[in-house]
Amino acid sequence: MVNLTINGQQVQAEENTTILQAAEKVGIEIPTLCYDKRLTGHGACRICVVEVKGARALMTACTVPVAPGMEVQTHSPAVIEARKEILKLMIENHPLDCLTCEKSGKCKLQDLCYEYDVKDGGYGGKKKNYPIDDSNPFFILDRNKCILCGRCVRVDNELQCTGAINYNDRGFDTHVGIPYERDFEQSVCVSCGNCVSACPVGALMPKHKEKFRMWELKRVKTTCSYCGVGCQMELLVKGNKIVGVEPVDVEPNNGLLCVK
Question: 51 and 30 in contact (C-beta within 8 Å)?
Fold first, then answer.
């Protein structure tokens, strides 16, 4: 076990545990966008930065392992200022159509901008203008809302193991897409929807037949009866009608579902 201090609180954590995991263990919340506990942290979004005493710069909590005697501040003035700047850069070229976005109420970017009082980027930079890919019968891809956190790519390649999507181009033009800029209909996508479930914003959204807001829903946990695996899922219910299905991150499916 490793002894360290987080926000003045003495914490014991196992060796090779990250700062993020150690903080979660004692109920200290560090914001994340790219992090998924099923995947190895890679610090793409940078929103989980924390201040470590003696370090030359802020460090990403999801990638840095704990060390004996480490002193961590998760919400120091420097950390809060850095997170604000990161959020401003994210929404600088992000559509601000939150009033009509279907993800409203379950968008982690929206929640963090509210928490850190960020209303716009303020840099006057170039905007993304990608066509919306709605070729898949079950979901749409709006690259203009993508924050390049990489969760969809990594879930598809490391957990689902289909290899349908990846990063295309470099620099400002980097975007999630299909090889050779094809659409989903022409890809090896199996329509499992796991990339959609992993997306923290409105870039990948299911094609719901009914319109609803997230706060109107009742969630009913149940077991999929299609095969014998016993996948756990939540039925999204509005009134007395099922309007959607989402996976539950427990055994045996660990947050994954199939197209069925």
Answer: no
pLDDT digits (tens, 9 = 90+) for 3-13: 999 999 999 99
Within 10 Å of residue 82's Cβ, how many Cβ atoms? 18
Half-sphere exposure of 18 (CA within 13 A, CB side): 21
Look at the chain and count its residues: 260
Q: Tell me the mean pLDDT in the region 233-237.
A: 97
Residue 259's pLDDT band, with cuts at 50, 70 and 90, is confident
| Confidence at residue 254, expressed as pLDDT on a 0 to 100 scale | 94
Which residues partner with 140 through β-bridges?
205
pLDDT tens digits for range 177-190:
999 999 998 999 99
Q: Is the pLDDT of residue 124 over 90?
A: no
Q: Can you give the chain as a three-state secondary structure string? A: CEEEEECCEEEEECCCCEHHHHHHHCCCCCCCCCCCCCCCCCCCCCCCEEEECCCCCCEECCCCECCCCCEEECCCHHHHHHHHHHHHHHHHCCCCCCCCCCCCCCCHHHHHHHHCCCCCCCCCCCCCCCCCECCCCCEEECHHHCCCCCHHHHHHHHHHCCCCCEEECCHHHCEEECHHHCCHHHCCCCCCCHHHHHCCCCCEEECCCCCCCHHHCEEEEEECCCCCCCCEEEEEEECCEEEEEEECCCCCCCCCCCCC
